[in-house]
Here is the input.
Amino acid sequence: MDYFARDCYHLGIESNFNCKRFFKFARVCLADDEDESEDRTMQICMRDKEVGHIYDLYQTRNNIHQKACQHKVVSAIDTM
Here is the structure.
């Protein structure tokens, strides 16, 4: 996720997402399945108060995709 900060810096795009804060509050937890199968899945879990910060993550990703990945010059180079 630190690549969002790098890409935003070099593209001149403002980002409110803080990857250090994300890693501070992220935890890997066992999935709370109803059936007690032997293959328990793992999930990345966040505190409920971090929901706004996660929205910032997806907003930043969307901004990078629209302004850099779908730029007309990038599309022309891909076509060649």
Notes: The two ends are 30 Å apart (CA to CA). Strands lie at 27-30, 42-45. The longest strand covers residues 27-30.
